[in-house]
Amino acid sequence: MTGFDSTGLGLEKPGPAVNPVRIRGDLDPAVSRWMWLVKWILAIPHYIVLFFLSIGYVLVWIIALLLILFTGKYPRDLFDFTVGVLRWSWRVGFYAWSPLGTDKYPPFSLRSDENYPADLEVDYPGQFSRGLVLVKWWLLAIPHYLVVMAFAGGGYMAFSDDYGMSWIALVPILTLIAVIALLFTATYPARLFDFIMGLQRWSLRVQVYSSLLRDEYPPFRLDQGPREPGSVEVIQRADS
């Protein structure tokens, strides 16, 4: 409901809607110009942990699907575990693969950490659609899967040869361009970082949807930059 402002002379503007899925990735201004060459090796302990977490993720996904189908509920503990696995994976990716935006080693934790440059939060809705759970993760999400494949799984045709077509993925190529620029200039191109974050944010929103964590359909929108549109940090930056 719209009300009067503090002076009583006019109406307040309604506040921006808060996205129930929030992906953060803050570029470290002091990120090393060469450390990206070895971070993927340094993250090996995380890969091992994520392998076992991914097994738990699949088991929880199956249990959650059945529980939502018959009760409309996703138990909070299972919900938090799934969000934690996605959060952990995103932090490791942000550090070691794309967009390589920090040199700060990811924490071994499923919990949200406001002190780490990358984070993912999903609001717990409480009630889920029992019918939607049967189709949203495959049929309804197909358009998004095609879009994500176009920039994460092989979006641009590189060349053709005697064995058929070869493809390259957009996000790794853009990340490579960014870190090569970082290597020679000691500066990570800010606009390229924002664009890569937009691509990663789109992909993560689809992951959240297909993980059965929300019923809202992901937007077909490239929200670039380190923070979600409508976040306090973005609003303050726009007002300054």
Summarize the structure in words.
The chain is mostly helical. The chain has one domain (21-235). 48% of the residues lie in helices and 9% in strands. It has eight helices and four strands; from the N terminus they run βαααβααββααα. The strands form two sheets. Strands 1-2 form a two-stranded antiparallel sheet. Strands 3-4 form a two-stranded antiparallel sheet. Strand 3 (156-161) and strand 4 form a beta hairpin. It is globular, with a radius of gyration of 20 Å. The protein starts with 20 loop residues before the first strand and ends with a helix. 27% of the residues are buried.
What attributes characterize this protein structure?
disordered N terminus, 4 strands, mainly alpha, 240 residues, 8 helices, globular
Radius of gyration: 20 Å
- Which strands sit side by side, in order, in the main sheet? 1-2
**CA distance, first residue to last residue:** 27 Å
Q: In percent, how much strand structure appears in the residues? A: 5-15%
Number of domains: 1
Q: What would you call the quaternary organization?
A: single chain
What is the molecular shape? globular
Low-confidence stretches: 1-15, 154-161, 235-240
**Number of β-strand runs:** 4
- The average pLDDT value, as a whole number, equals 87
Order of secondary-structure elements: EHHHEHHEEHHH
Helicity level: 40-55%
Q: Structural class of the secondary elements?
A: mainly alpha
Taking the sheet with the most strands, its summary is: 2 strands, antiparallel
Helices, by number, come to 8
